[in-house]
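S.,

As promised, the heme C run. Input:
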Amino acid sequence: MNKRLKLLAIFAVIFLFANGPYYVAVADHGYGKEKSWHEKLFDRDDDDDDEKHHRKRYLAPVSNAAYKEECGACHFVYQPELLPSASWERILDSLEDHFGDAVELDPDASKTILDYLSANAAEHSSAKRAVKIMRSLRATVPLRITEIPYIRRKHHEVTPDVLKRESIGSLSNCSACHTTAEDGIYEDDYVVIPK
Ligand code: HEC
Ligand code: HEC
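Predicted complex:
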């Protein structure tokens, strides 16, 4: 090999190695904007990434009886990992005007539920979706899961007239379309949009 070719080969190797950490840095901050070409190339929706980081694949199914009973009376019981604890606090602190409804809860139940939701909130989870939710929020504290930029982005193809269907009602009704929502599984393979 002549000298110039050798030098070129060395540069090529350095370039490849130097790009590894660069890619990781970009990937960590890359959500919330369009993916760039190198993210598209390397980011195959992160399933391989999960194994590398020992992330949990799915959200844990709801396991608290009081939460299921009190909060499941009107809608799907959202997994605690879908919101940060600061959001759960805001929600529990404003139950007298809960999205237009008044929710009554005795102080014991309220404490039990908030303790459960906070201890299992998104910021304590290593599940892929929870990690993406925390990244996407950038320290904001939403009152709704459906306000989270990551969640909004994932549903941008669902049109308002689909949501208005009697079988759905609103985007808040996760289990209408995610057939495995109760199990904490939101993978697109299990989405069926009802007529
Ligand atoms: C009396 C009925 C009722 C009860 C009981 C109730 N909710 Fe709700 N909740 C609602 C309504 C109505 C909405 C708005 C749904 C919509 O926009 O389609 C809502 C929305 C929510 C959302 C936001 C969903 C989204 O759009 O991302 C969360 C989170 C939530 N409730 C948590 C709770 C918790 C926690 C409890 C128990 C302390 C609870 N709810 C009990 C009626 C209720
Ligand atoms: C009207 C039907 C519908 C409702 C209601 C709905 N989703 Fe979805 N969801 C979808 C569709 C469609 C996709 C996109 C699937 C795809 O990428 O092809 C999706 C994607 C997702 C994804 C990303 C999955 C992936 O594989 O990347 C998550 C997480 C998610 N939804 C969570 C929720 C949560 C939480 C709720 C309730 C607050 C909800 N969805 C309500 C239809 C729905």
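Residues 82, 129, 145-146, 151, 154-155, 158, 162-163, 168, 171-174, 176-178, 186-188, 191, 193 surround heme C (ligand 2) (CB under 6 Å). The two ends are 67 Å apart (CA to CA).

- D.
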